[in-house]
């Protein structure tokens, strides 16, 4: 009986770790940060012809900075409010 209880506790710990690892905020935040960096670099290196197409507004730069801000928001939110581990069912 003791071995069974140890196995269950070990699986619950692994489940809690997996829940925190695959939190959707981590995935969305990470993707927005990566894409934000790419789009911001494209905005920084924009040519005059690219700016003329967009009526002298550097769309890539502003969009990239917005994506970076949103991605960082999600990652900070994840850090400040981590996912609570699932509670095991109580025995009766």
End-to-end distance = 17 Å
Kindly estimate the percentage of residues that lie in beta strands according to DSSP: under 5%
Task: Name the shape in a single word.
Answer: rod-shaped
Low-confidence stretches: none
Helix content: over 70%
Pattern of helices and strands: HHHH
Count, helices: 4
The major β-sheet equals: none
Structural class: mainly alpha
Q: How large, in whole angstroms, is the Cα Rg? A: 22 Å
The total count of strands amounts to 0
- How confident overall, as mean pLDDT? 85
Notes on the protein architecture:
There is one protein chain. Helices cover 75% and strands 0% of the residues. The protein is an all-alpha fold and 92 residues long. Helix 2 (24-44) runs antiparallel to helix 4 (59-80).
Give a brief rundown of this model.
This protein is an all-alpha fold.
Structural features:
single chain, 92 residues, mainly alpha, 4 helices, 75% helix
């Amino acid at each position: 009986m003791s071995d069974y209880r140890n196995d269950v506790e070990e699986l619950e710990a692994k489940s809690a770790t997996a829940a925190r690892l695959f939190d959707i905020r981590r995935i969305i935040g990470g993707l927005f940060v990566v894409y934000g960096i790419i789009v911001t670099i494209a905005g920084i290196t924009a040519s005059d012809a690219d700016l003329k197409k967009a009526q002298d507004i550097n769309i890539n730069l502003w969009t990239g900075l917005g994506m970076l801000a949103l991605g960082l928001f999600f990652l900070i939110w994840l850090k400040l409010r981590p996912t609570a581990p699932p509670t095991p069912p109580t025995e009766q």
